[in-house]
Amino acid sequence: MSAQITKPAVSLDQIFSLTAVRTDRWREMLELGRKWLKHEVSSEQVQEHFTQLSDLEILHAYPGKPLMQALAAQLVAEQRDAFVALCGRISFSILARYYKEESHEWQLYPDASALSDGRAHDEALGGRPYFEVLIVAPSANSRVERNVQLLRSMRRKEDDFVYEPVVVESFQDAFCAIAVNPNIAAVAIFEGFDFSSKQKVPLLDHAIQELSVHIDDDHLALQLADVLANYRPELDIYMLSDRHPEEIASDSRAKCIRRVLYAVEEPMELHLSILEGVRQRYRTPFFDNLKHYAKQPISTFHALPIARGKSVFKSDWIRDMGEFYGHNLFLAESSATTGGLDSLLEPTGNIKEAQERAAKAFGAEHCYFVTNGTSTSNKMVLMAIAKPGDIVIVDRNCHKSHHYGMVLGGLLPYYVEAFPMKAYSMYGAVPLRAIKKALLDLKAEGKLERVRAVDLTNCTFDGHVYNTRRVMEECLAIKPDLVFLWDEAWFGFAHWSPFLRPRTAMGAAANIESWLADPNSIRDYEQQQEQLGEQPSAETLLATRLIPDPRAVRLRVYQTNSTHKSMSAIRQGSMVLVKDVDFYKIEPQFHEAVFTHSTTSPNQQLIASIDVARRQMELEGYGLVSNAIQIAFDIRSQIKRHPLISRFFTVLGADEMIPEQFRESGFVDFLAEGMHWNKAVASIRDDEFFLDPTRITLVCGTAGYDGTQFKNLLASRFDIQLNKTSRNSVLLQSNINNTRSDVAHLIRVLMEISTEIEVHLARSGEEGRLQFEQRVQSLMHDVPDLPNFSEFHPDFRTDVGNHAAVEGNIRDAFFRSWDQENCEYVALNSEECDRRLREGPAMVSAKMVIPYPPGFPILVPGQIIGADTIEFMRKLDVKEVHGYEASKGLQLIRLAAQ
Ligand SMILES: *Cc1c(COP(=O)(O)O)cnc(C)c1O
Fold it and tell me: Which residue's alpha carbon is nearest to atom 2 within ligand 1?
């Protein structure tokens, strides 16, 4: 009789992006309502879904009680048309975010005139930024109710922002609210609430189960504050106590609380604190001042003709540039560091403050803005933390800036290898075992003292995320003062996902820091030492998850991120984040490194955009990142489920991207059958590698395209841009700017291409089919081996031990080629090249040879060129190869002995 009602199944993607659940539920509600209109479903079915929806809606301010009650009444009275109309209006308002701008959206019967003349910015909301305040308070407490009403009534026209309260009554509801509701920017906790929720939101049960809190004492309010701050550190948390506020304030757990207020005080105090807290995050010291500067009438006598735009707007010939960019760009250009503009090289004013805010926002102790990209950030860090002759353990697949940084600083790179993904011509990440082995080998040779740092890319271009905490802990167990440089060029946004944050450099550093402070840590360490006994073998150490000595550890962590790659900064905007207990010792060095590498003319707009990117993430990063993850899951599942597209295209799951031995939890993939929430949690926490869901490897070889062809096809015919390709795949990334329309466009395009392939195959008969199959076969199976780092030539080794010489003096080799007589060329495809491989003398690269993208070297100066590298280069599919001129051939170092 009635259609099967679809029970909301809990899938992993919904947990990762809880904020998307709500819009889905409203869409389902509307669909169900329309079926109800046609009598295709029963009232009970509608009621059931509506109850679930209502349980979710208590966690949001809009549509609020009156509208939800109206819907409930219409449902009971079977006013089907009215119910569907109101559902439609509300779900549209949620999607289009009208309720943030138009107060009539909140009314049951909006004033017709308000609707028709579209007074977008009405009195009450005033076009000001809108947010919600979570109020956690005991149920049916008249004083709290009164306070909430007072808060609402305090809304004043002169406030910078508008907010609406969301009131919940339990610990569980409070947690669910901040998880599903990205509008929440502040939380006010009144003491005396319950732990358990009265209603059941089945979806959220899972999240709650995994809340690793032990409710072990009576101060529920403090525990709640702690849990909320862990999940979303950017929230301002207020505690309202009617006991002894000063006692709470002095509790060590209260450090995440912005202010403790006496609950019986005037709510005005709370209101003002809430606004002030958001204003603090909204404030962008550098950008605010730049706007102010641009308004001043200023005559310039400094060397920047373009400043104020006079040379542009008065010109007969270049005025179009001015018209294109607008006045403000030129008014905000300056080479002065006066007028409050501060100096990036030695900031003392608003740049300093902007950097301090960014440091806090990203969980670091210090932050440096860099206007020459992460390429420069990496060189700065390497220069600051190590000196010539120091050894740095580094992933050979690191971005070229690391290798050049070693050349510049005279550091000795000790190359460790990522696991290969031969079938897709790409590399994964470096197994921890390889890193530990490098340290233990160096120790055996008596060189551990010279090892300064471990330098890795997190996440990799293709999305491999390290277990940053485990890597650092185990390395620190071998050498307790190692410095870590995590190149998180792609991963800056991850701080704003509670799931990904523990795997960022700063997230892991914070967790290690708490572990170090925990008295049990010494006991854990000593127990392990006892088990390991005297002189454990290297094999034992490699096989053990090592615990460092908490008394010896110096926690020194650096992260670089291309703010422009994952947040709203202008291209080249980058940051260095520092959490280093010994930073005070190397700060002068760090400044020298900044002076060495920075331009003396940093771009004002770039600095401003980094400042603004921080503001955005602190105020809406949680929702934006959650959305980016949702988009990625949408793309993954649409391609997987689509009968036609999936015939020619696949997205690689975690199971394909990460070998099984690195997924100890047994996690398979986000979309795999039977992947429960707790498995994902275990995977994120424990597995050696995890896949960043927003980086999507789409295999196109099975559709007969190599990566470059497919990338060009998407760009030329469909206006879809992407960056990285491999022999048989392309990389799609979802970002904080993507919308569901982008997903729809992509899927439509893939469908069109799939249809074309099908039509072509049908028309071209047996012969065409065979050709297609051969092409696919070649792209998917005739793949070159991925060369590992071979070794440095003995001339560029220092004191080599018995291991292959993966560490060497890259700087000497680099400058050898400055004299042409030291060089020779051998054509890549020549007999000569094959002969040299067979008979010698060894060919030694003079250059850093870097296919771009992805931009990491397959040869470095001083490296002996192996047969596998030659084969790889011969099959390379990218056109741009830095350090290699096809017309001349491979540039080699001519060695004295030859
Ligand atoms: C892009 C990138 C860099 C360089 O960053 P820019 O901001 O482009 O200079 C460094 N490392 C990795 C891993 C990158 O992807």
Answer: 489
